[in-house]
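hi!! sorry for the late reply, been swamped w classes. u asked for the two structures so here they r. pasted raw, havent cleaned anything up. first the sequence of the first protein and right below it the tokens
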Amino acid sequence: MRSIYIAFLMLVIFSISPAVQAIDTIVYPWDYDEERFKEHTYYLALLKLALENSKEEFGEYQLEKSEQPMYQGRALVEIKYNRNLSVTWTMTSKQREQELSAIRIPILRGLGGYRIFLIKQGKQEKFSQVKSAKQLKKLFAGQGRDWPDSAVLVDNDYRLITGPGHSTLFNMLQFGRFDYMPRALHEPWNEVEMFEGLQVESSLALHYPSPYYFFVSFDNPKLKSRIEKGLINAEKDGSFKRLFDSHPVTKSMLAAAQLEKRKIFKLKNAFMSQETQQVVEKFSLFNFPKGKVINKGDKTIY
């Protein structure tokens, strides 16, 4: 009888152990300036939404912050070699999609390609006088050294000065090392409150196709499938759009940016993969706002 009881206990233990083992531990990155920059809270909320919307198929999960803070370039290396991180979020490029496994669903819902500028306070008139791309190209932009935006700007003949990270770049702008810093639509509003002497430029914008994706390692196909499935489910049930429309980081960015009142300079992005070009053409979840596009002769999506 005792041997039967032990055998029964072993059967119970082995029958429940797969459920325990099925919990996915997912490690995400954080930045040195996390307490000041709030943009990551939207991406993290969307990641949680995707994981929740895939629980039925993939089971429970546990989200953990990485042990050490890291700049974007370091996070991408960690993902590439499948160590210390499980997932990150960033603008895509052909090189990044060759080194990392991209989940090709635009997490900014088609609006990731717009850039408006941070400038020094009192310099608005300089930008109000800009009527052409040729004039804007005489000024210096500032961007991160390892950001795909930097390559796009240089390839379109914009003058560029680079720095290692956000805080350094904002300090450089404060001291006049460059004239403007292009930012995604959801980014500059919190930043002007953090750094004295800066303002959001009000008359110009850039646009180049540049979706933001979640990225995982090629060695982690299960996580890719899980996040992809969760995002698709969230789009189907409307929770993706509800989050975008209600989250503090993204809910007011279109109204605040007032793209319809800006001159929009259209740039080419020669650093997209063929797959992402197809995403740009076929996976736009928003109708793009109509601004005053002044680059004559360019194919436009407005």
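now the second protein. again sequence first, tokens right under
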Amino acid sequence: MSRDDAATHTDDRPTPVLEARRLTKSFGHVRAMVDADFELMPGEVLAVIGDNGAGKSTLVKALSGALIPDQGEILLEGHPVHFRSPLEARGQGIETVYQDLAVAPALDIASNLFLGREIRRPGLLGTLLRVVDARAMRTEAKHQLDALGVRIPDVRQPVESLSGGQRQSVAVARAAAFGTRLVIMDEPTAALGVRESGMVLDLIRRISGRGLPVVLISHNMPQVFDIADRIHIHRLGSRVAVVSPRTHTMADAVAIMTGAATPDEVGGRSHFDERAGRRDRPGVQGEPTSRALPGPDGATDHGLPEQESPR
């Protein structure tokens, strides 16, 4: 699907939860976004992929209120919005989970979940003296973690005592608790191992299963194709295509992303069909593995499948 095709609405399509039209942002002589479009539909997991320097972070910052675009418009459920700060975006139900975890290590889990939105004690203690209701926060934090299947024995333990995956789970649970319209996740598994990454991906599935749409920015192609309903491909500051794992393979997505092929030149073969064919191929055992090794310029590769050698 081309950018123009993806931006064209039909009467029978639902209204996007979040939409951007022709966003442009320049930093001096560098144009980080050039007429960038974006659409997040209700209930979906939308992955955003692109090479280093493609403008993904600039797009996400514009959508979450971290920067103001020079041109273009952003619509929330069909209504124009103008975010001047992340706080304004949060006030509209848009929560963001950042790659650097954005948690306070010295505070306990409950305090992190309600960071900046603490529950106050009833009466004058809360309204006048602003005393925090620690018991209510612990009870609600336990409820939120249980609802997402996060297994942490005691919400009173400090976050610094948790593993990387558990810390990210706390950040994701906080976003799910207060994100009434959508959740944006910026490389949530970048610093995690395989097991911890699987934990975060399970959380994303549970959040999506509750009807909350998720935007996932990631370089990990196997994870993207495993969890995304649609994939937004960003290149040179704008959207060049929106594809689906049901119609495109990882090789197709990387070819579009790097400019090796146009959207019209690839597609027609499901990622799931390709994976099944690889499993059935003689001499190849098990699932394909992936890797992310640094290239000559320090960037990682795109997690393309690597076949296991026959034993």
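hope this helps!! also noticed smth abt the second:
The CA atoms of residues 117 and 189 lie 26 Å apart.
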